[in-house]
Amino acid sequence: MVVCFCGELTLVKTSWIPLNPARRFYACPTKDSICGFIRWVDPPMCARIKIIIPGLLRNINTLEERCNGLVRSINMLQKQCNGLLSRNNMLEARCDALKDEGFKLKMYLCASWFMFVTVIFSIWSM
């Protein structure tokens, strides 16, 4: 247990500044405290790690941004796909209605020809 200059128990935080990336330290728990207590938990890192970790963090952030962009694209494509599916369903229903109408017209045509032939035959046979 580490106590800061204010007499409070400290919190363990992680530094993400380029000079000390991913290095843990004790800090005063009071926000905007004037005591300014800081004590390192971890030993200093070598120069190579100070270069590698920020680069890895940038890569992670870039990949997360790309992933979020892809998720947004997928959501947009799903909305478009849903719209196209509903349009397809509407067109299929219209096509079925036109098929029914076409069938009715064929039946009317056949009935009218039958009536025509019957009338002609009956006139001719008189």
From TrEMBL:
Gene Ontology terms, MF aspect: zinc ion binding
Database matches in Pfam families: Zn_ribbon_GRF (PF06839)
Coiled coil location: 60-101
Top-level taxon: Eukaryota
Keywords per UniProt: Coiled coil, Membrane, Metal-binding, Transmembrane, Transmembrane helix, Zinc, Zinc-finger
Keyword Protease (UniProt): no
Parts of the chain that traverse the membrane: 107-124
InterPro entries (alphabetical): Znf_GRF (IPR010666)
Domain spans labelled GRF-type: 4-44
Protein name: GRF-type domain-containing protein
Organism: Lactuca saligna (Willowleaf lettuce)
UniProt lineage: Eukaryota, Viridiplantae, Streptophyta, Embryophyta, Tracheophyta
